[in-house]
Write a structure and sequence with these properties.
The strands form 2 sheets. The protein has a 4-stranded antiparallel sheet, with no helix packed on it. 0% of the residues lie in helices and 39% in strands. β3 and β4 form a beta hairpin. The relative contact order is 0.15. The protein has 2 domains: 62 residues, no CATH class; 40 residues, no CATH class. By secondary structure, it is mostly beta strands. The C terminus is likely disordered. It starts with 8 loop residues before the first strand and ends with a strand. The chain is globular, with a radius of gyration of 18 Å. The protein contains no helices and 6 strands. Bound molecules: zinc ion (ZN).
Length: 112
Protein backbone atom coordinates (compact mmCIF):
# COMPACT_ATOMS: atom_id res chain seq x y z
CA UNK A 1 0.00 0.00 0.00
CA UNK A 2 1.44 3.36 -1.03
CA UNK A 3 0.95 6.51 0.95
CA UNK A 4 -0.92 9.23 -0.95
CA UNK A 5 1.07 12.49 -1.09
CA UNK A 6 -2.31 14.33 -1.23
CA UNK A 7 -1.43 16.34 -4.35
CA UNK A 8 -4.77 18.08 -4.95
CA UNK A 9 -7.78 19.05 -2.86
CA UNK A 10 -11.48 19.55 -3.18
CA UNK A 11 -13.07 22.16 -0.91
CA UNK A 12 -16.80 22.37 -0.26
CA UNK A 13 -18.16 25.60 1.17
CA UNK A 14 -21.74 26.21 2.24
CA UNK A 15 -22.63 29.80 3.10
CA UNK A 16 -25.60 30.01 5.47
CA UNK A 17 -27.85 32.88 6.47
CA UNK A 18 -28.98 32.52 10.09
CA UNK A 19 -32.09 34.67 9.87
CA UNK A 20 -33.10 34.29 13.51
CA UNK A 21 -29.90 36.00 14.74
CA UNK A 22 -29.04 38.01 11.58
CA UNK A 23 -25.70 36.26 11.08
CA UNK A 24 -23.86 34.35 8.36
CA UNK A 25 -21.57 31.34 8.45
CA UNK A 26 -19.39 29.46 5.98
CA UNK A 27 -19.10 25.73 6.58
CA UNK A 28 -15.96 24.30 4.94
CA UNK A 29 -14.86 20.70 4.25
CA UNK A 30 -11.56 19.63 2.57
CA UNK A 31 -10.84 16.29 0.91
CA UNK A 32 -7.89 14.89 -1.11
CA UNK A 33 -9.01 14.39 -4.72
CA UNK A 34 -6.53 11.55 -5.31
CA UNK A 35 -7.44 9.26 -2.42
CA UNK A 36 -10.63 10.80 -1.03
CA UNK A 37 -9.26 11.16 2.49
CA UNK A 38 -10.95 13.97 4.40
CA UNK A 39 -8.81 16.50 6.25
CA UNK A 40 -9.45 17.53 9.85
CA UNK A 41 -9.14 21.13 11.03
CA UNK A 42 -6.54 21.55 13.78
CA UNK A 43 -6.50 23.81 16.82
CA UNK A 44 -10.11 25.00 16.67
CA UNK A 45 -12.55 24.18 19.48
CA UNK A 46 -15.66 22.14 18.71
CA UNK A 47 -19.12 23.73 18.75
CA UNK A 48 -20.94 26.65 17.14
CA UNK A 49 -20.34 30.34 17.87
CA UNK A 50 -21.00 33.70 16.22
CA UNK A 51 -17.78 34.99 17.87
CA UNK A 52 -15.21 32.75 16.19
CA UNK A 53 -14.47 29.58 14.23
CA UNK A 54 -15.57 26.22 15.60
CA UNK A 55 -15.32 22.69 14.23
CA UNK A 56 -17.75 19.80 14.13
CA UNK A 57 -17.26 17.01 16.67
CA UNK A 58 -15.36 14.99 14.03
CA UNK A 59 -13.13 18.00 13.20
CA UNK A 60 -13.90 17.52 9.48
CA UNK A 61 -16.04 20.66 9.06
CA UNK A 62 -15.18 24.17 10.21
CA UNK A 63 -17.93 26.71 10.88
CA UNK A 64 -16.70 30.25 10.14
CA UNK A 65 -18.77 33.24 11.21
CA UNK A 66 -19.07 35.86 8.44
CA UNK A 67 -20.34 39.38 8.04
CA UNK A 68 -20.52 41.67 5.03
CA UNK A 69 -17.66 44.18 4.94
CA UNK A 70 -20.25 46.98 4.97
CA UNK A 71 -21.21 45.85 8.51
CA UNK A 72 -17.76 47.01 9.67
CA UNK A 73 -14.91 45.19 11.32
CA UNK A 74 -14.19 47.71 14.08
CA UNK A 75 -11.25 50.09 14.30
CA UNK A 76 -8.64 48.82 14.76
CA UNK A 77 -9.71 45.56 13.18
CA UNK A 78 -9.69 42.59 15.53
CA UNK A 79 -7.23 40.80 13.27
CA UNK A 80 -3.57 40.21 13.94
CA UNK A 81 -1.41 38.15 11.67
CA UNK A 82 0.95 35.36 12.53
CA UNK A 83 2.33 32.27 10.85
CA UNK A 84 3.34 29.39 13.07
CA UNK A 85 4.38 25.95 11.85
CA UNK A 86 5.05 23.10 14.24
CA UNK A 87 6.32 19.83 12.85
CA UNK A 88 8.92 17.13 12.73
CA UNK A 89 10.87 17.70 9.54
CA UNK A 90 8.02 18.33 7.13
CA UNK A 91 8.08 20.60 4.13
CA UNK A 92 8.63 23.70 6.28
CA UNK A 93 11.89 22.40 7.74
CA UNK A 94 15.07 24.33 7.06
CA UNK A 95 17.89 22.25 5.56
CA UNK A 96 19.90 20.60 8.30
CA UNK A 97 17.14 20.73 10.92
CA UNK A 98 15.63 17.60 12.32
CA UNK A 99 13.09 16.75 14.98
CA UNK A 100 10.22 18.87 16.29
CA UNK A 101 10.63 22.59 15.75
CA UNK A 102 8.57 25.75 15.69
CA UNK A 103 8.77 28.63 13.24
CA UNK A 104 7.10 31.94 14.02
CA UNK A 105 7.41 33.92 10.83
CA UNK A 106 5.56 37.12 11.62
CA UNK A 107 3.29 38.50 14.32
CA UNK A 108 1.50 41.83 14.04
CA UNK A 109 -1.77 43.21 15.31
CA UNK A 110 -4.22 45.79 14.07
CA UNK A 111 -3.44 45.66 10.37
CA UNK A 112 -6.12 46.25 7.76
ZN1 LIG B 1 -4.61 11.74 -0.83
Amino acid sequence: MTVCPHPDFDAEVDVNRLEDIGAFTADVRIRCIACGEPFAFVGIPAGLSSDGPRVSVSGLEVHLPLRPVSAGLGNPTPYGFSVTAVGGGGTNATAGESGPHRHVVERRRGIA
